Structures are given as C-alpha cells and as structure tokens.
TrEMBL record:
Keywords: Cell membrane, Membrane, Transmembrane, Transmembrane helix. This is RDD family protein. It is a multi-pass membrane protein. It is found in: Cell membrane. InterPro entries: Pra-immunoreactive, RDD, UCP021697. It comes from Cryobacterium psychrophilum.
Length: 142
C-alpha cells in the first residue's frame, strides 16, 4: 500500500497539486505565482474599459469594433510588454509555460480565444484558462 504522503503512485495517476501552479514549478505565493481570479478580473475589466473608450471615440460604440479592439490590445501588448495594459496595471504578466519569449503566435492564439470568452471560463487545476493552455502560456504575478 503506498504511503499517504506520496505525491505519485506507481500504480495510479499522480496526486493532485497542493497549490495552483505547483505542477508547473511555480511558487505558491508572491512573484511568479499563478495569478488569482481577483487580479485577472480586474485586468480584464481595465482592458474592456479601454476597448469601450476607443470604440466610443472612433466608432460611436460598436459592439463588434469593441471586441476587435479588445483582441487587438492583447495581440499587440502580450508579446511586446508581457501582458495587456490591464494585466500590467494590476501586477500580472503572461509568460510561456516552457520559458522563453511569448512571440506573436502565442499572443494571437491567446487573444482570439480570450475574445471568444468561453475558453477563458474553463480552467484547469492550475487555474489556467483553456486559452492559456492552447497558447502554452501562464498568467503570473509580476
């Protein structure tokens, strides 16, 4: 019979993570830890507000234009400054799960899926949205 403190079993699946991001090698808290829902929601609210503002100024608020602007903010800023404007203002950063540079393709995949909304609402045990999993990214505390 396996020890109850064992993190994995030779006869079964590995034990669940103790904290979000543990399986990814991230710390439990502080800088570099998985971004928590409060900051994520605040960042998205800031980005959406910016998109609404731009949409109101240039398109007299068009819902389609607003969504396109929101996605473009992410496509432009995630690879260049490591997150959207909202992410950076609330102290978050988007990084590749395997390290290195985000690059444009990850920013585009992540932004388009985020614009669809539903993938962002589906999370795994590491609190990574489906959009982050498909793009190979992680949203962490900066």
């Amino acid at each position: 019979m396996p020890d109850s403190d064992s993190r994995s079993s030779p006869n079964g699946p590995p034990a669940p993570s103790v904290w979000p991001g543990e399986r990814l090698g991230l710390p439990r808290t502080g800088r570099g830890s998985i971004a928590r829902p409060g900051r994520r929601i605040a960042g998205v609210a800031i980005d959406w507000s910016l998109a609404v503002g731009v949409s109101m100024v240039f398109f007299q608020y068009d819902a389609v234009a607003n969504s396109v602007i929101f996605v473009l903010l992410h496509v432009i800023f995630v690879p260049t400054i490591g997150g959207s404007i909202g992410h950076r203002l609330v102290g978050l950063r988007v990084v590749p799960a395997q390290g290195g540079w985000i690059g444009p393709w990850r920013g585009i995949v992540r932004a388009v899926l985020l614009g669809i909304v539903l993938p962002a609402l589906v999370w795994d045990s590491d609190q990574r949205g489906f959009h982050d999993k498909l793009a190979g990214t992680v949203l962490i505390r900066a």
